[in-house]
Amino acid sequence: MKPTASVALNRMGYGIRRSEEAPEDPVRSLLQQFDLYDPRPAALRWREDTSGKAGEAIQMIRSQRRKRQEYLGTAQRESEAMMAENMASSDQRNELPPELRRALYSGNDVFRKDVGLRTNIAVTSKAPLIERLVHFWSNHFSVSTGKVGTAHQVGNHEFGAIRPHVLGKFSDMLKAATLHPAMLLYLDQYQSTGPNSRFIRRRRANSARGPRGLNENLAREVLELHTLGVGGGYSQSDVTELARALTGWTIAGIPLVERFADPQPGGAVFVQVAHEPGARSVLGQKYAETGPKQALAILDDLAAHPATAKHIATKLARHFAGDEPPGSLITKLETDFVRTGGDLASLARALIEAPEVWTMEPVKFRQPFEWFVSALRFTGITDLSARRISGALNEIGQVPWRAPSPAGFDDKADSWAGPDALFRRVELAERIARNASSDDILARAQRAFPETLSSNTRTWMTRAESAAQALGLLLVAPEMMRR
């Protein structure tokens, strides 16, 4: 299949920018983006460091929870149901300590600003394919604001664990993403403690109320979602053994932790006294007791496993070549992953050079975030505030880092093409069109979709009552909705 400019722009990227021309050599234009990509653009260099905020927020909320429990204990004549209702009232929330209110609100502010940063970076980027890959991998290693403290960290996770490794080795990204404070918080790893660790043994000896013990959430998701995949050959024993190896990996900012914390790259800390001692066995491979290095060694081997290559190749092919991607494409990507040891730049080049991705017919329905970024790039809108960006994405149903589960946002059309979802895009498209320049709109449409702008779309645009209406129609035309 002959590579075309429209596929390079819209299937492989985020669409044309208003100031751009369609590329004469589509493949070369994509390969050039490897050199144009900036893992830390200026907007991120000015971003405030929020790495230490999560632990502070957790401590404040734990303190407030204890105060509430003490208060409940003194209210002997009131039922628990009535007390729960009272504590949930707006008046009671307003009585929260000022420092706790600030922690909760600051998390929301950080999150909103990070959503704005992510969006504006994609809108202005000269390397939209690589930005698409950043967002693909960020969704693969999905973290969400559903847990206390994560609002401060989800942006850090993508900006610090995904962006620097998007053209590097999968093993490096796996370790950075898995052991980042955002992931440790989101999947409750930060409070997982070895059942036979020194910390637990001391608690038992003192008859003290100990921590919650071993938590297998992160280990299970690493095996099921991030590496081998469902049916990848792992057992419950492998989950438990990996969970034991991960004990001790936690977050900074918690007083009980700080005394024993050994800082690690990426912002996490390792607490040896909470680590389950002893050798581990995962997928038949033995791992000696080496403290924090034990989990790292297991993750390195999982990254190189053949089942991981198959799982990653399938997801990447599905994202760029259709809900039911060609088996030949999966095989090519899988072969490249194994041959290079998970070199993600080589994997991206293999994707670009595969004939299967260059079919002229649309193969994917754009997810809301993709559509919104493409609309802003086309219209040349680059100055939206973080609040307006977050509001728009919430309206159309896909705010970054708010996926409903650790599996991330679904990557199939059925999840995004419902009537209500389409109606919301139409409403937002009308507002965008009213506030954007619509001069020379038909010529710009032909430049954005070279060889693929349909006669039907051109007809509707020429019949529009105004240029703004023509722009609005284009933003919800099949060419813009699909890629």
Describe the structure.
By secondary structure, the protein is mainly α. It has helices at residues 5-11, 26-36, 42-45, 53-74, 80-88, 90-94, 98-124, 128-140, 154-162, 170-178, 181-186, 198-205, 217-226, 236-246, 255-258, 292-303, 306-321, 327-340, 344-353, 368-379, 386-396, 419-434, 441-448, 455-462, 467-475, 478-481; strands spanning 249-251, 261-263, 268-271, 280-282, 285-287. Helices cover 57% and strands 3% of the residues. It is globular. The chain starts with a helix and ends with a helix. The model is unreliable at 75-93 (pLDDT under 50).
- The number of helical elements comes to 26
How helical, in percent, are the residues? 55-70%
Name the poorly predicted regions: 75-93
Question: What portion of residues belong to β-strands?
Answer: under 5%
Structural class: mainly alpha
Kindly provide the radius of gyration, computed on alpha-carbon positions and rounded to a whole number of angstroms.
25 Å
Whole-Å distance between the termini? 16 Å
Tell me the strand order in the biggest sheet. Answer: 1-3-2
Give the overall silhouette: globular
Number of strands: 5
Largest sheet: 3 strands, antiparallel
Overall pLDDT confidence: 90
